[in-house]
Amino acid sequence: MLKKEVKTEVIGKYKRHASDTGSPEVQVAVLTKRIDQLVDHLKRNKKDHHSRRGLLILVGQRKRLLNYLHRTDVKKFEELSSSLKTK
Length: 87
Hints:
Elements: H1 4-14, H2 24-44, H3 49-72, H4 74-84
Helix pairs in contact: 1-2, 2-3, 3-4
């Protein structure tokens, strides 16, 4: 799980307006941060298959959100993917 401070920082960087927490950009950024943390965890704990399954679920969610963003607004998709370095 992400710490509250880290999550607030990520939301603050990618939000569209003052009270935005659910836009696709914010969701993708938060998922990316969680995925990075899980990858680090799995490098240390190679036999943790339950967390590996959770990682695959998060990657699938992020992929669906990125596909949606690509369909609806290509410019925002490209900005987000370049800032997060994901495609």
